[in-house]
Specification:
Blueprint: E1 5-9, E2 16-20, H1 41-45, H2 55-68, H3 79-100, H4 102-112, H5 130-144, H6 151-181, H7 184-219
Antiparallel strand pairs: 1-2
Helix pairs in contact: 2-3, 3-4, 4-7, 5-6, 6-7
The protein binds zinc ion.
Amino acid sequence: MSFPLIEHTCWRCGQSSEQESEAASLFCKFCNSLQRPVVDYFEFFGFDKSLTIDSAELQRRYYLLSRQLHPDRYTRATETERNFSLEATSILNDGYRVLRDPVQRAEYILKESGFDIGEQRSKDVPPELLEEVFDLNVALDVLRSGDAGALTELEASRERFVEMQNEIDADLELKFRQYDAAPEPERHELLTSIRSVLNRRRYIRNLLQEVNKEFATREA
Ligand SMILES: [Zn+2]
């Protein structure tokens, strides 16, 4: 992994250093005071902007930074450092939550690359799911009108959706690797295709929730 060198001047001692944009740069290497944290999650944790991440390493850095940013360490610090530590802590926690989850991580990169990832997209039925969704709605209507005979059909739907979700996750993993290995000019197109897979995934997840809810009310 290589990091771009960034010229940084310490707010406290005024000394400049060229440093790699890794996590250690939270502290001045001359006076060791806490610096204003970078807001980009990848930069904050010292990772390349990539869709695949070493999750054990992410966790290691998270714990290390949590210790370094622990509030007990800043009770007698200057106000500037206390504020930086609060800012950094919130970036640390939000960033960890987003980066550890493959889907949220991809959505973060999509958003940063100017893609619209709005929830409203999930209302458009992906064309290849039209038939599936139609059958599901019929089964739900039949059930709600009191005919438990449609339960078998609903169970079959549930199994198909779970299967689809697994296929999608495998497909995403492959696409993530392709993106990370691709040269810059090809990346936008890959992100476009990743976004449509994510929309499909979200759509199926919502359908699954609906089906599971139906089962839950019946079992209650
Ligand atoms: Zn300094």
